[in-house]
Amino acid sequence: xxxxxxxxxxxxxxxxxxxxxxxxxxxxxxxxxxxxxxxxxxxxxxxxxxxxxxxxxxxxxxxxxxxxxxxxxxxxxxxxxxxxxxxxxxxxxxxxxxxxxxxxxxxxxxxxxxxxxxxxxxxxxx
Length: 126
Ligand SMILES: [Zn+2]
What we know:
By secondary structure, the chain is mostly helical. It has one domain (2-122). It contains six helices and three strands, in the order H-E-E-E-H-H-H-H-H. It has helices at 2-15, 48-63, 67-84, 87-92, 95-103, 109-112, and strands at residues 20-22, 30-33, 36-39. A three-stranded mixed β-sheet has the order 1-3-2, covered by helices on one side. A hairpin with a 2-residue loop joins strand 2 (30-33) and strand 3. It binds zinc ion. Zinc ion (ZN) is lined by residues 53, 57, 97, 100. Zinc ion is lined by residues 53, 57, 97, 100.
C-alpha cells in the first residue's frame, strides 16, 4: 500500500511534467484537463501558486479516474448555483475549488495530501 501510494505520488507530481498548453481566450487564468494544464498566458508558467492550483485539480481528477470528476464538478456547481443564486459564489464553493484555493499557496501540499482529501472540504464554506 505504501509503495503503491508513493509510486502514484511520484509519478503524478515529481517525475511527470504535465504538458502545458497556452490558450489565449481561456475564460480563466488556468484550467486543468487531465493530463494537460491550460494557461491563458505563457508567463503564468512561472506563477507557482496557479501551477500548484492546477496540479491539485489534476490530482483530484486522477484519483476520481478522470471522467467522474467532471460530472461531480458540474453537479456541485449546479447545486451551488441553486443555493447561492450567483455564478462566482457557486464556483468558489465547488468542493474541488475549495480545496485548491485554500491549499494552492502551500507548494508542498501535494507531497503530503491524503487520497481523496477534497472530501474534507465538503463542510468548509468559502
Ligand atoms: Zn480551480
